[in-house]
Amino acid sequence: xxxxxxxxxxxxxxxxxxxxxxxxxxxxxxxxxxxxxxxxxxxxxxxxxxxxxxxxxxxxxxxxxxxxxxxxxxxxxxxxxxxxxxxxxxxxxxxxxxxxxxxxxxxxxxxxxxxxxxxxxxxxxxxxxxxxxxxxxxxxxxxxxxxxxxxxxxxxxxxxxxxxxxxxxxxxxxxxxxxxxxxxxxxxxxxxxxxxxxxxxxxxxxxxxxxxxxxxxxxxxxxxxxxxxxxxxxxxxxxxxxxxxxxxxxxxxxxxxxxxxxxxxxxxxxxxxxxxxxxxxxxxxxxxxxxxxxxxxxxxxxxxxxxxxxxxxxxxxxxxxxxxxxxxxxxxxxxxxxxxxxxxxxxxxxxxxxxxxxxxxxxxxxxxxxxxxxxxxxxxxxxx
Length: 384
Prior knowledge:
alpha/beta; TIM Barrel; eight-stranded parallel beta barrel; 12 helices; about 10% strand; globular; disordered N terminus; cellulase activity; polysaccharide degradation; Cellulase (Glycoside Hydrolase Family 5 protein ); EC 3.2.1.4
């Protein structure tokens, strides 16, 4: 997500505590039981047969996606407690069942890894196990699961930092690849999330140097996955332009690795911006906005026309007590995306009220949906 959610997390913390109690998230299982369950989980998909397919054909099987935001990407707390450190409750299989039942067949799992790595870049085993457990919630539902690296503070796309960044990026993805090498084509790896010059004036625009370093990240990521074992040489994977930006300049600057027909491009686009993302912007939406049509025209010209498939890895609109307008916007957005064969993943950060970016749809503590009208509109549009 574009504006990092410290304020939203603080505002939702008290609510999150009560939600955890209501959800019965406390676990009284013995350590031995937990260890046994973790071992079982790590051996669950050790050798799934893969249907080798091109990225274009794989993306054609996707309808619409849902992202588990502000959860495994949270960077507070310690160890596996980080999952709930931004106010959301512990993720359950029931939650992902509800997502699947609502018509979403893509489950994007954002994960922050840097706070769970030691000085040798080794990922904490308990964290890796928990990530795998949640991945399996989607895989066992027959969903496509996108696993990424999310709020990573250790990489910054500058020339003088590139070598060290790439060293850590390779070390991380080597471990992820090793753990998930037996999974079939339903598991998709996404190398980095919104790589950008964090905190600098040109953070979301970038410059020639930062765009080139992002290309180096993509190259290192692809090479690491392809050099790993199991099904990974044939796995469909995702690369992103600078900041996952939908600007024409940044999309055109992305160097998609050649000779690999299993590469997908990830773009993030909350449009129209004033309505969809700017919390101080308008709550009005009346007809299809030109920014939506421009987005997909550009995507088509830069990528699709060259046989490179695209997924909108993040989209959505914040709650401004304007459900009817949000319904119309999501219908326009997804119907346009459908024309171009571009699946889109709604960013659900679990919050629906307060001063932050309130993209929440799923009521994670009680079940059901905060805005069933929006979920119905999503399902109807992608299935029409």
